[in-house]
Amino acid sequence: MASMADVARRANVAVSTVSYALNGTRPVAKATAERIRKAMDELGYRPNALARGLASKRSRNVALIFPMLERGLGLTEMEFVSAAAETAGDLGYHLVLWSTPLGDTDLLTKLTRQGLVDGVVIMEVHLEDARIEMLRRNGVPFCMIGRTGDNRDDPFADIDFESTVRDAVAHLAGLGHRSVGFVNHSQRSFDTGYGPSVRAARAFEEAAAAAGLHGFSRFCDDSPAAGREIWRDITAAEPGVTGLIVMNERASAGVLAAILQQGGRVPEDYSVLSVASSARVSEMTYPPLTTYHPPAAELGRLGVQVLIDRLEGREVPLVQQLIPCRLVLRDSTGPAARPHGAGS
Q: Is the predicted pLDDT of residue 344 greater than 50, yes or no?
């Protein structure tokens, strides 16, 4: 296999000159760069995307911006990342993952100005997101997996949380449940304007009222321990509950465990429905959770495709697409039992 030294000998230049030509750290004369590229072609030397970007002046790298969260990367998040990386590779790009803190726009500005990537895909989008404002202001090509409260002419692909939550409420109402709770992400997620938390909370309140249900919501930290605690809180405050919608993947296992620890049965006594959780995660619980499976792979592919279309200068319509979750029926939902705490 050819090395950088082989390329340097063939082009009759120093190894450092080949390096400069590849990474752009110092200017290289046009004629010299042409000799280096010709030598690389003759030797079949392809070290990475930087070599392919020699003529185009682009890195052929794109970044997926996934901020560091207390819950970390789970299986559902990895479905987004894996699909995005595969799509980038298929289109001749490399995907890099940047776990920059959500509010650190200074760091993100520095990273995007270093020429390491040609554009970015943004995840975990908030209704008012300083990262988006920075990218607009600096002219950095981007696409969102998610959406702000004011999307203007920005491209995005997102879960249709409103229609998904409406469908989840209708599913439980159709099984006869009249007292239904909604377990959201943390209070902090909602207060900081995390798009899914805010949109789903509003959709649940509206759908429960429209269906004539007794609906109530709880915020919950993203952990099984928090899920166990929230279930104890719910049964103390809402003794008539028979149905629960959980949009908190890590808390759902704790909710199920708490129900079983209290002697409850799922779904005979309580129906538990998971929203925006990977079907693979839902298979790991007992009983396996009925879930609205998110279109994670589709969104990951679409976000990267839209970004690369922009980078390649293709004249395509603006993409602002909402995709609902898909119902996967398992063993955790069933007809409503007599409400607990009701009189005989």
A: no
